[in-house]
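Tutorial sheet, problem 5. The two components below are modelled jointly, 582 residues in total.
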Amino acid sequence: MAAAASRRVLPGFGLTLGYTLTYLALIVLIPLCAVFLRAGGLSLDQFWQAVASPRVLASYRLTFGASAIAALINAVFGLILAWSLVRYSFPGRKLIDSLVDLPFALPTAVAGISLTAIYARNGWLGQYLEPAGIKVAFTPLGVLVALIFIGLPFVVRTIQPVLEDLELEYEEAAASLGASRAQIILRIILPALLPALLTGFTLAFARAIGEYGSVIFIAGNMPLVSEITPLIIITKLEQYDYAGATAVAAVMLLASFALLLAINALQAWMVRRNGVAR
Amino acid sequence: MRETANAQRGRTRHERNDATRDAPVVKWIVLGLGLAFFLVFLLLPLLAVFVEAFRRGFSVYIAALAEPDAQSAIRLTLTAAAFAVPLNVVFGIAAAWLISKFEFTGKTVLVTLIDLPFSVSPVVAGLIYVLVFGAQGWFGGWLKDHDIKIIFAVPGIVLATVFVTFPFVARELIPLMQAQGRDEEEAALVLGASGLQTFLRVTLPNIFWGLLYGVILCNARAMGEFGAVSVVSGHIRGQTNTMPLHIEILYNEYQFAAAFAVASLLALLALVTLLIKTVAERRQDARDREPQFNHVEPAVTSSS
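Model answer (structure tokens):
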């Protein structure tokens, strides 16, 4: 007791601990428990009916599939963009660096209607894509475009600090020992970036599976085709099917928790490998 | 010689080093791909908002913003942010103080739990409050007996907004205050400053720009939240519609110019947010590089 007190020179431990835990419990933990308690009140049959009907299964396929593809595309182009921002000088570099965070700051509904306007039949890009046979707006491809938009900064902002802190000496040593540029990139830089790349991918994926606002405008929301899982929850709520909505929400929450654990493990790996905290 | 020195200026350290410089062909291909992706997926949606907003002319733009429903949506959005941001600032500071200044068991779990709202879908965030306060929820009966409306009313919107913006300030402050350690605060206390004085005169100046950064990101999300608010709002025009919900209604009614006019206000807010964020980031970085113990002196002299 005395040892603990002497270590705590600074005041406010009890106050901040009490306040943090109370606020966390009231706003986050207790309401989240409501989902599981409510879902736990359903019989197994009811639960299964709600979470495994063909329409809901189709929505999982779309949500998880499109999220994975969007995160993959973001991992590739996010790496390219982060590489450009860190390693190359070009006019407008600082401006573009600041604008990469746009999806964090731009409300999802604004992004949603804007992307729809761009990819609709008479839109900026839609008018060229549709005659070529590529329909984006109101198809699963539209879902993918929206998920790419919201996920990009997660990848760039995870890779960028690691790339900045990477020591030049490794590359110098490899070059002086006769390695080609391709060998250096494949065998020195990419392995060092791997934890950050995977973390960025998972962050973008986790964000994408819960995304609602930017997707529903461009998706077209056709049952079995372009209906995402969060929209299923909304639809069930609007039909006063609270039990069904809660059951699907419980499935989504479990997926989120699993991803959160994966992200924590990946970040720990990243800190060990690169010594970068975030 | 001077020419090469000039040519070196403005280059990144990787371009100045023979071992890390990419061939010009590689540079232009990689840069071209990166910039094309940036242009199509980030810049184009931003530009489209403003172009579509003014497509029908300036008078239509002004009329869309002056309309009573738009005005009430703007007021409600400001109200929600006015509750959510201060609440989460106080929480963020308390949580960051707790986590950065003290050692206790379960700290890692606590940090993970604080981040939890980020991994919950906004739709689920809205749903949980319907389950607690809705007509069918835990307190639904009691609230109805006492004639208190939370769901489909303003308090529900505020609660959902608080949930989705919950981690923003804490998340910015925790790593920052952990990196700064507790030496400066301990020195201030040993020299006789009170706890409050220590916080106001030592900690606060040290974290000011990081705090501002967290606040503006929290505010941007609070004003722009759509999914969570959509679930608890009830969509009553002129009463429980925030700006993003108003945009949705206008858009679904094919009033595209009006929808984009309201959207352009939020896009402008996003740009201001990014601007302040960039400035705050640079200032905080500069501050963290300053030699330590610079800021203790005034706190100590005025504390006696």
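Marking note: Chain B touches chain A through 105 residues (CB under 8 Å). Full credit if you identified this.
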